[in-house]
Design a protein that fits this description.
The structure is a single chain. By secondary structure, this protein is of the alpha+beta class. Helix content is 26%, strand content 24%.
């Protein structure tokens, strides 16, 4: 799953390290989560003010 970040300083890297892997390239932050995409998507919806995730 890839995110375009406005502020990389707000990333909780310790929490994200539990994923299969991470990669930062410019403003994009990639989280390698393999088969847990639906779980992460649901958690993001529940814990953010985003109406839609592209």
């Amino acid at each position: 799953m890839r995110f375009t970040l406005q502020d990389q300083g707000r990333v909780n890297r310790k929490a994200i390290e539990k994923a299969q892997g991470t990669n930062i390239s410019g403003e994009q932050f990639q989280i390698i989560i393999r088969n847990d995409v639906s779980k992460l998507y649901k958690a993001i919806q529940e814990n953010s003010s985003l109406d839609e995730i592209n």
